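Morning. Coffee machine broken again, so started the prediction first thing and wrote up yesterday's gels while waiting. Chain of 405 residues, entered below exactly as on the submission form.
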Amino acid sequence: MIELTLSSHPGLQCVHLKGRMDSMTSPEVQQQLDELIQQGERKIVIDMGEIFYLSSVGLRVFINAQKQLEKVNGELIFYQLGGNIMEIFSLSGLDNYFTIISTEEEFKALADGVESQAECQTQKFDDLTVQYIKKETTPGKLVGIGSQEKLALAQYGESDVTPVKSNDVQFGAGLAALGDNYAEYKDYFGEAMIINRSLFFYPAVTRPMVDFMLCMDEKASLQYQFLHGFGFSGDYSAIISFETTHAFINLADLTNHLFSISEADMLGVVILAESKGLWGMNLRQVPIVDNQPETGKEIFDEDTFSAWMNFPVEPSDINHIIAATGICVREREQCSPDIQTLLGKGQTCHFHGGVFEQEPLSKNVDQFESELNRVLTQMEATKVQHLLGQTILNSGLIGIIELEK
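Came back before lunch.
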């Protein structure tokens, strides 16, 4: 039998164990650790002061949890190992694998160190808690790419393609493909996003798979082919960590809260978060002249919409990591017609997002850029979609770039 209790400290979650940890009781401990990691805990202290028996099955639980945490720069920390338990760790060679502390002073120093890692400001909005670091930056720039005028009637041709160089656009969204010859890539345009100058796109074919081109060198000059979209570049003016306490938050409400942190009227946004229900859409066919509807109707007409658009009737990809980028504005009516066109009819934001694997995600603002890089370079993307405002998120990190209006 084992007793398990939790206590929270600034930046730390402590799991107090009492009793015997063996094949019968270890699953309970594993379940609790899995839940904490999925909730975003990264520094987890295991208080072993009242554990009198530990088998190799129990050790395996700790090793598996440590491996999960290492992916997100976290760790298990063991506190108050008794003599016989410490011997088991030593014989297994784990005394050098885990951080082990013995005294109350060491525990306090650990908690104080975590608390002081980043000087964050905090705001609360109903069930949403936001922590953030602001920086002094100059406004970034937004650019339109191509035109949406020919989308509705699928009238795009070779002359409508706009080449975009990776060193010109840091972030972006739209319809794009990869290739050098129009005849070869014209049938592969699809929902696309640029994050950190890397392009991810979802070809509008019968059985699509995400294709991508990583650009790890900002001086490199890769070329992406766009039919339409937008791009923006600049330095982050704020890095934000958000977490819901009870209910989840939808994308539209989340982006509205960003204007409580920034005084700018238009923002470029990069989101790394856990999905609790993605609402998105993507093209089933490429809107080029070759594919024009024979009826002459628009692809958004009710008679042709289902043949052209994948628009699920219920949310998908729950618990997956979403990496998304887009723009949002404080007041749509105050924007120029060109920016309103980029946003879409009646909208105040426009986002494209990539769906990645189910993995733990750090909530530490200091780790935003390293986490973003880890997701883009090490995790598999399964789709890229135009995200709707009702997409539901749980917790995550956000970088915002204040843009010239």
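The longest strand covers residues 43-54. Going to sketch it on the whiteboard this afternoon.
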